[in-house]
Amino acid sequence: MISPAPENVTATPNATMTGFAAPSRGSAELSSWQVVMPAGSTGPEHSVSREQVWTLTAGTLEVTCDGRTEKVTAGRTLVLPADVLRRIHSAETFEAYVVMRADGVVTVPGEEGTRVLPWAR
After folding, report:
1. What is the SS3 assignment for 25?
2. 98, 82 in Cβ contact below 8 A?
3. How many CA atoms lie within 13 A of 27 on its CB side?
4. Is 97 helix (H, G, I), strand (E, B) or coil?
5. Which member of 59, 66, 104, 119 lies 3.0 to 4.6 Å from 17 by CB, making a disulfide possible if both were Cys?
6. Once rounded to an integer, what is the mean pLDDT over residues 99-119?
7. Among 3, 101, 107, which Cα is nearest to 53's?
8. pLDDT tens figures, 49-105
9. Closest among 3, 78, 12 to 44, alpha carbons compared
10. What's the CATH number for 11-106?
11. Three-state DSSP class for 3?
């Protein structure tokens, strides 16, 4: 069993992620976390090397993925494909649960190398 803990919370300028399942917390293959993004925030354009499944539990987000923008509301699930540029904008404060293979890394256009997702490790 995994319980939320302060050491599993990562705050960025755009959102707060609370890590749940991850290899560092007993999961062999998957990571899961909660994202809370305040209204008006926009994350950086990026791609992730693994598919992600986002289930919104509150609020609304707008996602631009592969040049197409969609609005996602609470109660809906969004599947973001691997290796496709995306940007998340919070039209209103939202909360979502995300699941991904634990070995996913992020690439940001214009930056060398990849970034790990600390809440997913």
Report:
1. helix
2. no
3. 19
4. strand
5. 119
6. 94
7. 101
8. 999 999 999 999 999 998 899 999 999 999 999 999 999 999 899 999 999 999 999
9. 12
10. 2.60.120.10
11. coil
